[in-house]
Amino acid sequence: MSERKVLNKYYPPDFDPSKIPKLKLPKDRQYVVRLMAPFNMRCKTCGEYIYKGKKFNARKETVQNEVYLGLPIFRFYIKCTRCLAEITFKTDPENTDYTMEHGATRNFQAEKLLEEEEKRVQKEREDEELNNPMKVLENRTKDSKLEMEVLENLQELKDLNQRQAHVDFEAMLRQHRLSEEERLKQEQEEDERETAALVEEARKRRLLEDSDSEEDAAPAPPQPAFLPNPNPTAILDEGPKAKRKMESWERSVGTLGSRPQLSGLVVVKKTGLDRSTPQSQLAPTLGTVKNGKAADPAPRTPGTSSLSQLGAYSDSEDSSSSN
């Protein structure tokens, strides 16, 4: 079975490669390639800007009769994106760059021009020093003097910066500390003000709530006490009991509303103050008339009752028995 991927081809014994007809192509043949704009350019026809990196379908050809150190130079044809005008540029292997040829102008060439000028001046100097030894000495002297001036200027700038940029670290720390203290103090004052404002607001709110509650709360009418329906038989039973209790109390003590029956038997206990008082001072008091009526011969102490007089009587009997 033959190989699926043929790597070697069969050449017959009578194969002669010189007999194969060659395809004759023109030397200025153009190829379609895909490329990006190598630099920023502006179209001369419509003024459209074409920026670096924009992609084009370009035609490439080899420039005739232009070679740099055996390297061919290629030319590219592109079309403006706005007016479709043709723009051409070619390679520059000497400067590893591209050269604008037709249809547009290259932008931002200041840096490139400066580099070219520096290279030209350096080349002229090298050519001059190559044939004149005295020129070499002069150039070296000028370079040394220029270097010394540059160093002196640099030293002056350093001294000036040191004089003007004198930093007092203690003052900086002191100022930082003071600013920190002021900030803390200000924050504390603000907190106190906020706290006082909150307390005042809460107090006002509480006062308003109290006043509203007082206005809303009206005095409620007294509710009558709920009395259960009395039992008629219970009332009949309680009547004689109360009457009997009252009679027993009157027999033992006397009637509270009228003059007590045992008031004549009660003797008021005399204190030391009453013994020292003469009878002449007590006589006018016995005969005084109050509200147009004669006063009682035995004046009663206001607020005294039969029970208190009974107690005084019992004390007098005890004292008499002891005598």
N to C succession of SSEs: EEEEEEEEHHHHHHEEH
Number of strands: 10
Termini separation: 169 Å
Determine the structural class based on helices, strands and strand pairing: alpha+beta
Give the spatial strand order of the biggest sheet.
1-4-5-6-7
Major β-sheet annotation: 5 strands, antiparallel
Helix amount = 40-55%
- Shape descriptor reads elongated
Structure description:
By secondary structure, the chain is α+β, with helices and mostly antiparallel strands. The chain is 47% helix and 17% strand. It has seven helices and ten strands. The strands form three sheets. A five-stranded antiparallel β-sheet has the order 1-4-5-6-7, with no helix packed on it. The protein has a three-stranded antiparallel β-sheet with strand order 3-2-8, with no helix packed on it. A hairpin with a 2-residue loop joins strand 9 and strand 10.
Q: What is the structure about, briefly put?
A:
This protein has 323 residues and is α+β, with helices and mostly antiparallel strands. The protein is 47% helix and 17% strand.
